[in-house]
């Protein structure tokens, strides 16, 4: 295929990774961002072996490891009884896999610095309203109807509430999820915590509190944790009206050891309310547009797959185009490459979410008694580790990737 003129809408992790892959494949790439200054949104996230493999393929593994924090297990307990409810260990699988918790700013900066070093152009302060296909080219329009640019291909990486996806012929049905979370990034140097685990406390499925050590947002800073509290989005205003001290007292009642973290929160402005939606664009291509990341699929963060799936999409799209003789063939190959993996993990996220975010005491009872017991019996630990790792179905081969050799990678990053 001849080199293409490609617009990438959205300069988040998905868009930045796609720009790197596609430019390295010889295509002419232009990034379009609605904010005047591209920047990350949110607190921390967990990079799985899938996402880490993509970053390694981009040559960015040393940079992200220098900022992130290795995670070896996910552990959750009932806040009242102390009973272990969740215990997923990466080493249940052979191969030496692990997770890497990172601040969103660290992931963004790692990718953005690489884009800048490659000399790729980012046009900022441009809002996109729709795309129009004309004579095998795709024109992007702003809200006033003015043409922003004309391209062989548009890659939509504008997120879960993408206007381009909503206006497309494959516009997905959107189910706004009732549960969200308050997030904060807090200092953790000198504070007792499990530095190698995502630790959570539950009260049935209506309360979930978590601490994720995410390393540094920027070189030279102290270590941070992402602290989160699950709640219904509709209840957020009432929680804030009741006052910060009332909210902190509720958390301390469940988990007194979080006091040194809560002491750092003195204003609601330090907390971000995250809202989630379940949607899947099938197929993730239409009228000269390839959808990647949350534009293609989004759901709750229970399995920690969002950013990792986005990075896999970027790699798979570039690989599919490189092996195709026409753009249409390449887009069809991209859709096929991601179909099974996306559908599987969208389904798993949809099924697992009520076990940790819902009003159902029956589901919570089942989780705490039956599921927690079964999870200890082989091959359940291995299956859970594969789900969390994002490797229950092979995501690598059809994206043109070879999974890292984890013992060697851990030795290099030690």
UniProtKB/TrEMBL annotation:
Entry keyword annotation includes Cell wall biogenesis/degradation: no
GO molecular function, one term: FAD binding
SUPFAM superfamilies per record: FAD/NAD(P)-binding domain
Signal peptide positions on this chain: none
Keywords, sorted A to Z: FAD, Flavoprotein, Monooxygenase, Oxidoreductase
Domain annotation FAD-binding: ranges: 5-343
Cofactor field: FAD
Keyword presence, Flavoprotein: yes
Listed name of the protein: 2-polyprenyl-6-methoxyphenol hydroxylase-like FAD-dependent oxidoreductase
């Amino acid at each position: 295929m001849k080199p293409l003129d490609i617009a990438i809408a959205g300069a988040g992790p998905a868009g930045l990774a796609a720009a790197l892959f596609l430019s390295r494949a010889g295509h002419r790439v232009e990034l379009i961002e609605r904010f005047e200054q591209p920047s990350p949104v949110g607190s921390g996230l967990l990079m799985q072996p899938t996402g880490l493999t993509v970053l390694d393929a981009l040559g960015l593994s040393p940079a992200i490891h220098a900022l992130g924090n290795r995670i070896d297990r996910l552990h959750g307990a009932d806040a009242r009884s102390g009973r272990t409810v969740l215990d997923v260990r990466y080493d249940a699988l052979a191969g030496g896999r692990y997770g890497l918790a990172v601040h969103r700013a660290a992931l963004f900066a790692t990718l953005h610095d690489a884009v800048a070093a490659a000399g790729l152009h980012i046009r900022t302060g441009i809002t996109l309203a729709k795309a129009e296909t004309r004579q095998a080219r795709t024109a992007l329009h702003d809200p006033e109807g003015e043409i922003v640019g004309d391209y062989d291909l548009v890659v939509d990486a504008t997120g879960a509430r993408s206007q381009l996806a909503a206006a497309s012929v494959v516009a997905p049905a959107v189910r706004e999820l009732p549960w969200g979370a308050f997030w904060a990034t807090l200092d953790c140097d000198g504070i007792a915590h499990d530095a190698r685990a995502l630790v959570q406390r539950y009260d049935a499925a209506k309360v979930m509190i978590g601490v994720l050590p995410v390393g540094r947002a920027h070189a030279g800073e102290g270590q941070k944790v992402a602290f989160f509290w699950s709640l219904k989005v509709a209840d957020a205003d009432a929680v804030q009206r009741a006052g910060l001290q009332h909210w902190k007292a509720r958390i301390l009642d469940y988990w007194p050891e979080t006091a040194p973290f809560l002491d750092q929160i003195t204003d609601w402005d330090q907390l971000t309310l995250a809202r989630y939606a379940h949607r899947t664009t099938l197929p993730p291509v239409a009228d000269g547009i390839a959808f990647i990341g949350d534009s293609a699929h989004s759901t709750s963060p229970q399995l920690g797959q969002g950013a990792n799936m986005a990075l896999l999409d970027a790699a798979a799209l570039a690989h599919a185009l490189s092996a195709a003789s026409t753009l249409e063939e390449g887009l069809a190959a991209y859709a096929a490459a991601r179909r099974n993996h996306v559908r599987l993990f969208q389904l798993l996220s949809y099924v697992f979410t009520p076990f940790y975010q819902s009003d159902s005491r029956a589901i919570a009872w089942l989780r705490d008694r039956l599921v927690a017991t079964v999870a200890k019996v082989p091959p359940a630990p291995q299956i859970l580790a594969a789900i969390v790792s994002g490797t229950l179905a092979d995501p690598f081969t059809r994206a043109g990737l070879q999974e890292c050799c984890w013992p060697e990678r851990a030795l290099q990053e030690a």
